[in-house]
Amino acid sequence: MDKSKGIFVALVFMALALYPFVGGGGYGIDIVTKIMIYAILALSLELLVGTTGLVCFGQAAFFGIGAYAAVLFSGEQGAASILWLLPASMLAAAVYALAVGALSLRTRGVYFIMVTLAFAQMAYFVVHDTPLGGGTDGIYLYFRPTLGEKLKFDEPLVMYLFSLGTLVFVFGFLTVLLNSRFGRALAGIRVNEQRMRGTGFTTYPYKLAAFVISGGLAGLGGALFAIKDGFVNPELMSWHLSGAALMMIILGGLGHLRGALIGAFAFLLLQEFFKAEAIFGEFAKHWHLGMGIVIIAAVAVLPRGLVGLPEVLRKRLAGSGGGESRIGGLKSAQGGAK
Amino acid sequence: MNRLNPYKLAALAASLLLAAAPAYSAEKLKVGMMLPFTGTYAKLGATIKNGFKLYVQQQGGSLGGREIEYVEVDSEANPAKAVDNVNKLILQHNVDVLLGSVHSGVALAMAKRAKESGKLLIVPNAGADGVTGPLCAPNIFRTSFSNWQTGYAIGKAMAEDGHKRAVAVTWKYGSGEEQLKGFKEAFEKGGGKVIEELFVPFPNVEFQAVLTQVAAAKPDAVYSFFAGAGAVKFVKDYAAAGLKGSFPLYGTGFLTDGTLEAQGADAQGVKTALHYADQLGTPTDNAFRAAYSKAYGDQPDVYAVQGYDAAQLLKVGLTATGGDPKKSAEFAAAVRKATFDSPRGPFTISKSHNPIQDMYLREVKGDVNKVVRVVVKALEDPGRGCSMK
Amino acid sequence: MDLTTFLIQCLNAFQYGLLLFLVASGLTLIFGIMGVINLAHGSFYMIGAYLAYALAPVVASAIGGGFFATLLVGVVLSVVFGYLLEWAFYSYLYERDHLQQVLMTYGLILVFEELRSLLVGDNVYSVEIPQVLAGSIPLSEVMTYPTYRLFVSAICLVLVGAMFWVFARTRLGMMIRAGASNREMVQSLGIDISFLYRVVFAAGFALAAFAGMVAAPVSTVYPGMGGEVLIICFVVVVIGGIGSIQGALVAALLIGFVDTFGKVLVPGAAGVMVYLAMALILLWKPDGLFKAG
């Protein structure tokens, strides 16, 4: 990440930290908390899709397992400590990711997408059809966890700041990870796995490690979600959420951690925008239409996602036309998927 | 930084949004409607809303001295978004009353938030037993039914009709299973026996396999729970498989409510139990139906009745508290004492805040669900798990 | 389970499998030949079903009506619509990353679903079964089988035959096969590849819409019907091997059997069976059952 982008991200985090204190009302705090939690989910997926080139269509399962684990581990007796609750939830998600990854990494391309979907659907039906997690109606948290004596997660501001802290931690962790030898190996796998293996490099353990880390981080997001809402439901594991997470990172721009961040904010704020009755009146009921049109337009003019927006604008202003030059190379990746 | 920053844009849009929300006026009472306006349940959301607004209009636009104003949020029938949507109503729009929802999972999440925040919640449809069970609270009311109630009524009716061996077919789905429990309780009490339970994964609508199993089991009668598009298809497939002539089809009311036009001739003779029926013929019902079709150019259904009664309940409570829904204890006391003159017939509210109501056995004749008889008078949900006394 | 019941269940499975094939075949064509992951395929199916519902009164007043006339008009309309859709949106996607395709076609789903809500409303509708096929055939002492379902199976079988014939025997089929494996070479032979793609896409769209129209009398017409069919179609296409018509046929029948017998044998966990089957097959054959050449 070069310097200006680092500054951009730092400014975003600073703005988020200041937001509750400079006019972020109750609802503003609530919705930004939610978006930050989804941003953690998007970041976890970015590690697989953008960095390693593994398109996982079952990320919601890990998110959901983290959420269910947080509720089930909390128990009915009293408030648990977040210090063990979060790691335990992450572990639950990571264990499932280990099993799914170990099997599904045998396939590639579109087949990988579908196998991850299959495993996610299995997890979905387990919570949906068995009394384990309350069935279709879901289960709720009796007590929100605490951190020490003072910090109670019933308090929206505590929840907000803790979610922000976690988001910053995840972002920082992934930044460090991607700049390590491990991260460069993952990037190598994305660009050309054949060549990596040709040079005697065993790629499987690296991909599996990435998968497990990603699952654990998604589980972390899920656990926060459960604590914030106090309620979990099988829909958290449905393919709709896996799809939405993919949309966020594609919209934001693949291959950049900040893309996941921007994508999560853009995707969810756009929904809020089109649902706003104050602006659209009765037509707000048809908010899907506005979302759809914006998404189609985004694909048409922003092939690299929102992170490519400044570049496109600069080129437009300079009068040198569109920025669609880097597409040719992607066709070969697609050939491999067939 | 001189470049256009997407985050700032988004933040700008969001703050515009918050600023553009209409200013809060102290006199008006804000009703936050969290109903499905898109997707499979969109029709149900619309009729509940219409029913509610109809009553308010009849009262001159205000209840208990407070002028009513509405905020609508699309629940999308998605429980994963339920808490966000309730929070939007509570925190952004600062509503005084919550109204919702259709989907049981969404309603449970709303009940949880209502319990935490103390906001008045009126549930105009979702039948999840838990809403007036473990999650019951002084500020949570339901004007529709509990899943147990509808299942219990049809179980009793089937036993009374002399059926001994029944096959149960239902979606593998919370409401379906709760209704099945109520059904078994009453049917077995009446001397019947459920010889086979068949499940269809929700929301799968391919029924041939289970219909074949029904034919092989040769029961006296069949109990079923499906709703919406699933109900239409199940009833049509049941007839097409030739089972209708051999094994009479029973179900909870959702099998034939709001779906008769699409089911056509295949629904004729299907018997269901519900707290409402078409052509009840009471003066209240006649007046309601005339007013509804005049206002919306459409025939009302049970969902419209439930919305209408939600507004009635709100009026009773507000009148007693001088227009203040926050006085939960007084509000609840007034509602518990009241008898509601509903299109479905008079009903009262139980200790766990679920309607105590007559359950009708209905039979499809032509394009209406016609009353056969009252199966249970003033059926009260046991409110299992509710601590209110 | 006695033998009669077992045989009837096999018939159910076979019939459901053929219906799945009808929808999935268009998806595997578009996916295999143009390399486009088309999430909006379920919407095409939905559009077809709503055409069957909405066109019927229009056709009735214009040319006297009847289910088959409606079907014919619907197919013509959907070919035209598919052609225009390719020209307006999909032709820009061939050069794009798979994930860009996913994003745009997801946007199209939202748009189609809302337009449906605006134009037709959110009710559940049924479509009449044509009079000549309204009867049923007795199978056991109590069970009968609707003639219309058998008719749908017959149509599917005819289409399977037609598709194999087009691919194996005709010049168009040859061009399509060549276009799928080597785009540049086909172009150098003087074949207009853009036009070829447009035709294939229109055919794929029409297949899905046709499936929707034919299925409408048995499935009813309702909001969200496209989403349900989408995932199961992807399962079929991927198990079969992307771009393989034989594969799609075998996979569709397999899913038909898994789904049917899942409901009968493990009623509590029927939902998971299809996905379990997919995971097992892909772990055993990572490129699907029939790898397209």
Description:
The complex is a heterotrimer of chains A (338), B (389) and C (293). With 338 residues, chain A is an all-alpha fold. Chain A is built from 14 helices and four strands. Chain A has helices spanning 3-18, 26-52, 59-74, 82-104, 109-129, 156-179, 181-198, 204-229, 239-252, 257-275, 277-280, 287-301, 309-318, 330-337; strands at residues 139-140, 146-147, 151-152, 231-232. In chain A, the strands form two sheets. A two-stranded antiparallel sheet of chain A has the order 1-4. A two-stranded antiparallel ribbon of chain A has the order 2-3. The longest helix of chain A has 27 residues, at 26-52. Chain B has 389 residues and is an alpha/beta fold. In chain B, helix 8 links the parallel strand 9 and strand 10. The longest helix of chain B has 19 residues, at 302-320. Chain C has 293 residues and is mostly helical. Chain C has one domain. In chain C, strands 1-2 form a two-stranded antiparallel ribbon. The longest helix of chain C has 32 residues, at 3-34. The radius of gyration of chain C is 19 Å and the shape is globular. Chain C starts with a helix and ends in a 9-residue tail after the last helix. Chains in contact: A-B, A-C, B-C. Chains A and C meet through helix 5, helix 9, helix 12 and helix 14 of A and helix 4, helix 9 and helix 11 of C.
